[in-house]
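Is this the right way to post structure tokens for a design question? Let me know if I should format differently. Anyway, here goes:
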């Protein structure tokens, strides 16, 4: 596989071909593409391309992907399109980012459920201090009027930190 070819098709906007190449990278577990994938993960405005790259990085298992994925979750440009990014994080230890994940519990339906899933997989690795912060955050979310329809889910989420 040719890294230059991947860059060419991405830059030309040929998303169909880019997706094909990126999926092939994931199937062959070609770690030499990691730097290119990381670069386009954070720079692309294409939701499709970003999602395919995120899944491929998860398949590759390169922990270098964790921080860029976390940063993207905080980026307003990913609002409404965070589910796949969160899914990709399931392949990594995200216990140090649990507070940020709690912040997404009142995001879109998919993002909130993916966050819950991620939190539940690392809850045994979370310190008491982190649990305290997370409980406080969820309690604040419970008092926010915009979350009135998410109350049951937030109460269930609170139980992860008891």
């Amino acid at each position: 596989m040719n890294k230059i070819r991947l860059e060419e098709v991405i830059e030309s906007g040929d998303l169909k071909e880019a997706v094909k190449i990126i999926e092939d990278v994931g199937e062959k577990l070609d770690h030499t593409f990691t730097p290119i994938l990381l670069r386009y993960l954070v720079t692309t405005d294409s939701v499709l391309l970003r999602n395919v790259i995120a899944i491929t990085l998860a398949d590759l298992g390169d922990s270098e992907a964790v921080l860029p994925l976390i940063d993207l979750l905080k980026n307003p440009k990913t609002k409404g399109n965070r589910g796949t990014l969160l899914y990709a994080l399931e392949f990594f230890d995200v216990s140090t980012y649990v507070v940020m994940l709690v912040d997404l519990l009142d995001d879109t339906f998919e993002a909130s459920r993916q966050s819950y899933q991620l939190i539940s997989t690392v809850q045994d690795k979370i310190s008491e201090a982190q649990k305290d912060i997370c409980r406080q955050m969820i309690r604040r979310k419970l008092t926010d009027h915009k979350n009135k329809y998410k109350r049951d889910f937030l109460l269930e989420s609170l139980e992860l930190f008891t």
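Format looks fine. Someone answered above. Worth noting: Residues 10 and 18 are 6 Å apart (CA to CA). The chain has a mean pLDDT of 95.
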